[in-house]
Design the sequence.
């Protein structure tokens, strides 16, 4: 049976990375998207928490040194998928100019706010700007006198909850006449997004796109019910081709993706493919399920931020790669990760979707949010997305999983699949 490669890293590269990370002591690295007003990915904030066995919060000296190790091991381009990588820095990192090997053309250095920055810090920032780095100022206080760093920075990040009348006016006054771009931070709800956008802000950090306004009637839209029916068929084991093939044949984009993969170097067909049924039989059930799930997710998220599909793919890759380490089925965990973001794609609650899919009881409960072994990997990556590393540790301890292994498998899952089959 032909298997779909789910990670661009490959098994050998993944093992090598795990061994390197263990020797380096790199801790948890997470990222949060920064989107523009159209939902496009502008960049990612990269947070490195303390290397395992050490103490330090994200942005502290210890964590920042761990970030440098992570950037050296994996590269900004890979971690930020070619977008801007926003890197939290300590003052020691900025003043010490510790960024040798970090590509300035892809990197935004985030500087902790200083109400009275030292001349040494100002000179260091000026030098980094000359090299080509962009700079961002965190936790900006508009009530203070005009900060001399404003003339050097490119971005100011402000918690959206602090964008009230007088504070917003003060911030606008501070940046008047500059080219500074304001980024609203911690935008995790649709309400927060609407408020920040109403102020004229065009860049938003957070997971608000995962929590859109739900449809009033709570029903799956008619024009998307076809995809849900295909998903329902995908969970039957074995696949019922007589029912499935006509459904697939009605969707030209899905037919194209299936045939394109069958024709790829990873799947050498020994005879001409004359039907969708031929293609599915060549691929095998497991590979077809992954291709079809990705195609359906792409269709469902077409009018939404592309980051929604990207998050689903990262979750799916991580869950599939980590599954063997805790005695779970990779193919089932891949689909679990993909399905976890169906509610924002369909804009209906999860309980509306679940009764449409013939899932195992354990998987149904996992998608509904019930804690279980089947949900352990999904819970782990959800915790990391929210920077709740203590939750990651609890999952690791509960199921006897190695923290280094999970941390590096997550980094591997960020790959865009450039070395695997291209089925988009």
Sequence:
């Amino acid at each position: 049976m032909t298997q779909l490669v789910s990670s661009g890293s490959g098994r050998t590269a993944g093992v090598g990375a795990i061994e390197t990370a263990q020797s380096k002591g790199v801790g948890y690295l997470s990222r949060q998207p920064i989107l523009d007003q159209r939902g496009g990915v502008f960049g990612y904030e990269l947070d490195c928490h303390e290397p395992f066995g050490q103490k330090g919060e994200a942005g502290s000296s210890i964590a920042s040194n761990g970030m440098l190790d992570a950037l050296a091991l994996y590269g900004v381009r890979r971690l930020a998928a070619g977008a801007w990588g926003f890197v939290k820095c300590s003052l020691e990192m900025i003043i010490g100019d510790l960024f040798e090997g970090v590509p300035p053309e892809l990197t935004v250095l985030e500087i902790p706010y200083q109400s009275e920055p030292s001349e040494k810090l100002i000179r260091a920032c000026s030098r980094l700007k000359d090299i080509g780095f962009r700079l961002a100022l965190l936790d900006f206080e508009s009530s203070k006198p005009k900060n001399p760093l404003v003339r050097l920075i490119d971005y100011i990040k402000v918690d959206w909850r602090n964008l009230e009348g007088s504070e917003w006016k003060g911030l606008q006054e501070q940046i008047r006449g500059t080219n500074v771009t304001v980024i609203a931070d911690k935008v995790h709800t649709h309400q927060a997004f609407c408020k920040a956008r109403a102020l004229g802000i065009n860049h938003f950090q957070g997971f608000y796109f995962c929590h859109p306004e739900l449809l009033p009637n709570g029903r799956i839209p008619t024009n998307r019910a076809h995809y849900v029916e295909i998903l329902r068929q995908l969970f039957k084991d074995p696949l019922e081709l007589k029912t499935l093939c006509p459904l697939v044949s009605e969707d030209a984009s899905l037919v194209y993706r299936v045939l394109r993969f069958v024709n790829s170097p990873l799947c050498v067909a020994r005879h001409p493919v004359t039907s969708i049924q031929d293609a599915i039989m060549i691929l095998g059930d497991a590979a077809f399920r992954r291709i079809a799930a990705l195609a359906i997710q792409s269709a469902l998220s077409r009018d939404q931020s592309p980051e929604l599909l990207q998050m689903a793919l990262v979750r799916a890759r991580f869950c599939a790669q980590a599954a063997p380490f805790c005695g779970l089925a990779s193919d089932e965990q891949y689909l679990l990760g993909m399905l976890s973001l169906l509610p924002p794609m369909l804009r209906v609650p999860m309980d509306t979707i679940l009764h449409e899919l013939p899932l195992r009881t354990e998987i149904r409960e996992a998608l509904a949010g019930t804690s279980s072994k089947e949900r352990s990997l999904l819970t782990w990556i959800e915790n990391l997305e929210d920077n709740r590393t203590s939750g990651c540790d609890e999952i690791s301890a509960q199921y006897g999983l190695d923290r280094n292994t999970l941390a590096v498998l997550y980094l591997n899952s960020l790959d865009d699949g450039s070395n695997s089959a291209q089925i988009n």
Remarks:
- Residues 1-15, 55-59, 417-424 have pLDDT under 50 and may be disordered.
- The first strand starts at residue 29 and ends at 36.
- The chain has two domains: 26-210, 222-303+305-413.
